[in-house]
Structures are given as C-alpha cells and as structure tokens.
Design brief:
The protein has 136 residues and is mainly beta. Helix content is 12%, strand content 46%. The radius of gyration is 25 Å and the shape is rod-shaped.
C-alpha cells in the first residue's frame, strides 16, 4: 500500500513539473485588411485610405496603357512590385506601423505629367485577432 501511495505521489509531482514556465500567451496579430487600388493615367487610388496599423494586402490594377512599377513607401518601408502590365494586377503584403504612406506608379519612359500618388493614413494598431474564429 505504501508503494502504491508513494508511486502516486511521485507521478503527481512529475506531472506537476511538466510544462514551460516561460510560456507567454502573446496576442495574435490583427486580421489582415484587404485594400484595393487602381492606377489611372492621372492618379493612383487606394480604398480604404485610412485604417489601423497591422497587416495589409493591397491589390492594385493597372488601368493605363503602359507597364507600371508600383511602390509603397513610408515609415521604414519601401516595397516595389512590377512592372505590372496594362490591365494586370499586383499585390503588396506588409505589416504597417502608424504613419503616412504613399502608393506610387512609375514608368520606364518619361511622362509629360506624373501620376499623382495615393496616400494611406495608418492610425493606431487594430485589435488582436485572439477571439476571431475560422482564421488560418
């Protein structure tokens, strides 16, 4: 009987000692926000243009007659994709901090008039996605 009791106590201590005391239950990042953009002959537009900080995905369509290189530039970020052919799309995925960002469309050839960039206003960080279901 003593052997059984001491074995049970030893097993309980062994189970209690398992686990990692350094485990931190860090919050998951916010759910990514999908933005859409269009390159036109005179300007670039992105919608929505005001969101909270966190992961974003911008899908931009080139609606001009020439290939364009798309640049996202702002707070410690410079991301380029392209050239994007006419009527094609490209996607930029980044995690953005609060601040102001520009989305520009460039060309290999000189243009008479530069295409006006879209401006993104990134505010305070969005809430974490800890309680959101059905996320990857």
């Amino acid at each position: 009987m003593r052997l059984l009791a001491s074995t049970a106590v030893a097993a309980a201590l062994l189970v209690a000692g398992c686990g990692d005391e350094d485990f931190e239950n860090d919050p998951r990042p916010p759910v990514p926000v999908a933005l859409t953009g269009v390159i036109q002959d005179d300007k670039v537009t992105v919608s929505p243009d005001e969101i909270g900080a966190g992961p974003i995905s911008i899908t931009i369509s080139n609606q001009t007659n020439a290939p364009r290189t798309i640049t996202l530039e702002g707070v410690d970020v410079t991301e380029r994709v392209g050239p994007v052919d006419p009527l094609a799309t490209a996607t930029i995925q980044r995690t953005l901090a609060p601040g102001s960002y520009e989305v520009r469309a460039g060309s290999r050839r000189a243009l008479r008039k530069e295409i006006a960039p879209a401006v993104l206003a990134i505010g305070k960080e969005r809430k974490p996605s800890n309680n959101d279901l059905m996320l990857p």
